Amino acid sequence: MNGMEKMTKKEMEMVTGGKCNSDYGYFFCCPANADDMVATIKNLMNSGQKDKASRYIQFCYEVCGY
Q1: 11 and 41 Cβ atoms separated by less than 8 Å
Q2: Where are the domains positioned within the chain?
Q3: 2 pLDDT band (50/70/90 cuts)?
Q4: 59, 15, 32, 64: CA torsion to nearest 10
């Protein structure tokens, strides 16, 4: 993720999947598709990161349109 921290906003929007931001307390990028979103949510939940999963779901709904 080091490389992404130095990207411009325009460069971040060009990342596969679309927009990225850290407005939700974590740095998220829109997933490329719904399957990637579900896989990420499952991984977060299985690793005990329920707050992060919740914020990721909110981010995907509000920013990515999922």
Answers
A1: no
A2: 29-66
A3: very low
A4: 30
Residue that has been written with the tokens 């299985």 in this structure: 46
The string of pLDDT tens digits covering residues 9-47 is: 666 555 555 688 888 889 999 998 999 999 999 999 999
Task: Give the DSSP H/E element, type plus range, for residue 6.
Answer: none
d(CA 30, CA 28): 7
Rounded to a whole number of angstroms, the distance between the first and last alpha carbons of the chain is 24
Please, are residues 31 and 38 in contact by the beta-carbon 8 Å criterion?
A: no
CA-to-CA distance for 10 and 35, rounded, in angstroms? 25
Taking alpha carbons only, the member of 33, 32, 28 closest to residue 44 is: 28
Is residue 55 within 8 Å of 25, Cβ to Cβ? yes
